[in-house]
Amino acid sequence: MRSKRAHIIGAAIALIAALVLAPAAHAQASPTGAPSGADRGSASDESPRPDRRAVAGQVARTRGQPEFIALGPAAEAALTANALLAAGATQIRRRDYPGLGRVGQVFLLPRGLSLAQAQALLSTAAPRTRFDAHHLYGYAGGAPRVYAPALVSGGAGCRLPAGRTVGIIDGPVDRGHPALAGARIDSVALMGDARGESPDHGTAVAALIVGEDSGSALGGFAPGARLIAVDAFSGMGTRGRTDVELIGAGLDLLLRSDVRLVNLSISGPANAALADLLSAAAAQGMVMIAAAGNDAGRVGWPAAAPEVIAVTAVDAALHPYRRANTGPEVEFAAPGVDLWAARKGGGAYVSGTSYAAPIATALAARLGAGRTLTTEQLRRALRASARDLGPAGRDTQTGWGLVQGSGC
């Protein structure tokens, strides 16, 4: 199995090198105690463009594009369609509401026509017709509670310039998720087929870093950055598990791809071989941020390694996550309890240090970690701005305190 795996890993690295070094594009039997996902199972174009980010994740979609709906009297239906079609829109379907005296028509807008422009167009062509995004509605459970942006100051929505790159070693990422539809993500599965592994964990981690959502419910903390997502979990035969060999392959691939800031939302036991891999990566200038783990015990690896910045989770009231590992290795805290994050079908509340770490990683990207800041310089910068929690100074539960956003 190992020889076959080595062949697959070598082939994957060779094939992905050209992809991840190219200009950004949308690419499409583990031993007991092996590292696992830290919380797997907790649940410049001048022309105007449609306001897709304003509705991403909240509207119906066709062929990956957001739908827009025109609703008006039957007498204006043809006028509406003619006006929008002449502007380059595509009509998807029509539905009559004879009892209401209305006709509904669903359209896709072209790249050069925004929602506001379409509304202005119809205000003249069909003044009694209303045109808007084709929003989705769910059961009346209330809007998601989003608290993380306010806690870390500067929060989500700080857009990074092209050229900033972040890497993650995690599970598979659903690049078709609405929160990631506008993000620049290159991905590779080290063991091939990802169908056997749930994309929930990797998708949540990716969206917390580069998610695109103007409503901020699923917006990332470093939108605009390019993400290189290495799937080290698929193909293992045991869900939610990876091993030292594949973590090493992920680190090597990212280094070869000139990625110097990496999020590791994984946790497991101390391991001498893993320690050597982390030390070698750090010697090449890689800045690594990892989740402390959720065993209510000692800080797990790779977070416990001296070359790695260990991050724990706190809730909206700044209380430490009850299951988070503790110890002198903990350096910083970030929101990670009942956090609204990207999951299959939309979003869900998740808890764990796995979700705190990518927030810290995103803020590190905003500061230039891996480009202009070394690990030690990043530590000093984060410490200088951190909000102290618990006992004065550094403590074993929340380290130097809550990370704060800056660098926009």
TrEMBL record:
The UniProt record lists the Peptidase S8/S53 domain at: 163-401
This protein is called S8 family serine peptidase
Q: Which SUPFAM superfamilies match?
A: Subtilisin-like (SSF52743)
**Catalytic residues as annotated in Swiss-Prot or TrEMBL:** D170 (charge relay system), H201 (charge relay system), S354 (charge relay system)
Cross-referenced PROSITE patterns:
SUBTILASE (PS51892), SUBTILASE_SER (PS00138)
Record keywords: Hydrolase, Protease, Serine protease, Signal
Q: Where is the composition biased (Basic and acidic residues)?
A: 42-54
Where in this protein does the record put region Disordered?
Answer: 28-60, 389-408
The record's PANTHER family line, in alphabetical order, gives: CEREVISIN-RELATED (PTHR43806:SF11), PEPTIDASE S8 (PTHR43806)
- From the UniProt annotation, give the residues forming the signal peptide: 1-27
Recorded hits in Pfam families, A to Z, give: Peptidase_S8
The upper taxonomy is: Bacteria, Pseudomonadati, Pseudomonadota, Alphaproteobacteria, Rhodobacterales
Family classification = Belongs to the peptidase S8 family.
